[in-house]
Automatic annotation (TrEMBL):
It comes from Flavivirga eckloniae. Transmembrane segments: none annotated. SUPFAM superfamilies: Histone H3 K4-specific methyltransferase SET7/9 N-terminal domain. InterPro entries: MORN_2. Gene3D superfamilies: 3.90.930.1, Histone H3 K4-specific methyltransferase SET7/9 N-terminal domain. This is Preprotein translocase YidC. Pfam families: MORN_2. PANTHER family: MORN VARIANT REPEAT PROTEIN, TPR REPEAT PROTEIN.
């Protein structure tokens, strides 16, 4: 009987100490130790994780209130030395939706997106330290074949973008600079035959464009123009306003 009483007392003390360790502040008023927060006026968990003197550490789990149940929708594994975290987002059914790294609220580095789990990759993209798209972005068909390949520079399309058919045939090749069409552009038939080629200049067709049927040139159009506007410092101004 004494052993039972002692055991019960130990459990009570342990549970009391454990409950007191939740949602605590250090001597400077910063969150410290295990924290759990619930949705307002409910008993449904919103997030849980641990702080070290105000800094998130380890794995945090975030939930949504779905039909009065806490459903895991994201997890963040924090570094101890900075604000970067390895992040995963989930569907309501718990299937992995996307994963990558964040620095505070910014997406950084490589991110992967899925449709139906990690075996069904649909998009891979890269972000720079400012949270802008940088480098290659690839979109996949459900069968794993590449559908699109695009390149970005600080959040804007830059370089050659290519679109593919499900049979891995190139359908379009467009060139971008600073987020707008600028350079060589080509379009192909589903069989891979060239049907249109020409050049864009600052988002508009420019120069000679060629049109083909069954591999033969059938038409040429001249889009050469001299606009009364010119781009200066990323803004369009009238040529007449410029000094000679």
């Amino acid at each position: 009987m004494k052993k039972v009483i002692i055991t019960l007392l130990v459990l009570v003390v342990y549970n009391l100490g454990f409950s007191q360790a939740i949602n605590q502040l250090d001597e400077n008023g910063k969150r410290h130790g295990i924290w759990k927060k619930k949705f307002k006026n409910t008993d449904i968990l919103r997030y849980e994780g641990a702080f070290s003197h105000g800094k998130e550490i380890g794995v945090f789990k975030f939930y949504k209130n779905i039909r009065k149940k806490a459903v895991l929708t994201a997890s963040k594994e924090f570094n101890e030395s900075d604000n970067k975290a390895n992040v995963k987002f989930f569907t309501e059914r718990g299937t992995l939706l996307s994963e990558g790294q964040m620095d505070g609220k910014l997406y950084i580095g490589k991110w992967k997106y899925y449709k139906g789990g990690p075996d069904k990759l649909i998009t891979v993209e890269n972000y720079n330290d400012k949270g802008n798209l940088e480098g290659e972005r690839i979109v996949y068909y459900p069968n794993g074949q590449i559908a699109e390949k695009k390149n970005y520079l600080d959040g804007k399309l830059d370089g050659v973008s290519i679109w593919f058919s499900r049979d891995n045939i190139v359908l379009k090749e467009f060139t971008y600079a600073n987020g707008e069409l600028h350079g060589l552009a080509k379009s192909y038939s589903p069989k891979g035959d060239l049907i249109v080629e020409g050049t864009y200049k600052q988002g508009k067709k420019h120069g000679i464009w060629k049109y083909y049927e069954n591999g033969k040139l059938t038409e040429e159009k001249d889009y050469t123009y001299k606009s009364k506007y010119v781009k200066v410092n990323n803004k369009y101004v009238k040529r007449s306003s410029l000094k000679n």
